[in-house]
Amino acid sequence: MGIAEIIDTVIISIPFICLMILGIILLVCLQKLVMKLNGKIFHFVPVIFYAIQFTYGILRAKGIIIYYTDMCGGFDSPEWQSDGIICCSVSIWGLVVSSVILIAAYFKHKKSPVVTAKKSTKIFAGIFTAFLIAFSGVYSYEMIAYPYGTNQDFQNQKLLAIGKYMFDELHNENFDLNKNIYHKNIEDIKSNAYDAFRYTRFEEVYFLDKHTVCIVDGAFFDSMRGYIVTDGEKDYSDKYNKINGYDNLYSWSGETRPEYW
């Protein structure tokens, strides 16, 4: 790397470095602010908040906590993952800074920091602490009350809705067996099945025959995968993987699409 490239890299990095410095200063100020309160328990509120936020971020990034609105762009643009990564990054940053300030203050004053602040400062500190406690409660509620295990059920119901829409349109003679629907064209769907398409991961939907709808999930390395929805007239238990709890929903994977098997 030449001198010119090094200079360009440094210049490009300056805004990011400045932003990091400002962020650290802000976190330091916020931690020092809560330490203006008399109760020692309040001094640990930011650390507790960041720890809860980090846990929430991990659950989001791993796809354990997913909200229906996250699926607007399908699974190809996982909003929950970026949201989780941001939460984890911010919380780690805050946790490190707040912990260092907290430990340094208690080490300096042995038992607890000396609280000297104006009444207005303490009021502002109290309001800020209340906000952190409230957000900690929100994150905790989301993690405790979240219906774990319903994500796949939600997805399966949407797949069945897509199949029903395809069969209904076929029976109404709006579609023929050569009809293909691509994710990029779902805005053309004028039906209550629109959300099923919008919140479901797929690349293409089409008919294998008049009793069978194939949903292509996508290609992964040297294989493809997707789902099969039937109208109940055919059983594919010996050919595809039947999804437990559903009589007419199957999953498939292979080197090619099912019509070439």
> Total number of β-strand segments?
6
The residue-averaged pLDDT reads 83
Q: Helix coverage percent of residues?
A: 40-55%
- Ranges where pLDDT stays below 50 over 5 or more residues in a row are none
Overall structural class, as computed from helix and strand content, comes to alpha+beta
Strand content: 5-15%
Strand order of the largest sheet: 1-2-3-4-6-5
- Shape annotation: elongated
Encode the helix/strand succession as letters. HHHHHHEHEEEEE
Largest sheet: 6 strands, antiparallel
Radius of gyration: 27 Å
Quote the distance from N terminus to C terminus. Answer: 52 Å
**Helical run tally:** 7
Give a description of the structure.
- The protein has 261 residues and is of the alpha+beta class.
- Helices cover 52% and strands 13% of the residues.
- It has seven helices and six strands, in the order ααααααβαβββββ.
- Strands 1-2-3-4-6-5 form a six-stranded antiparallel β-sheet.
- A hairpin with a 6-residue loop joins strand 5 and strand 6.
- The longest helix is centred in the N-terminal third of the chain and has 32 residues.
- The radius of gyration is 27 Å and the shape is elongated.
- The two termini are 52 Å apart.
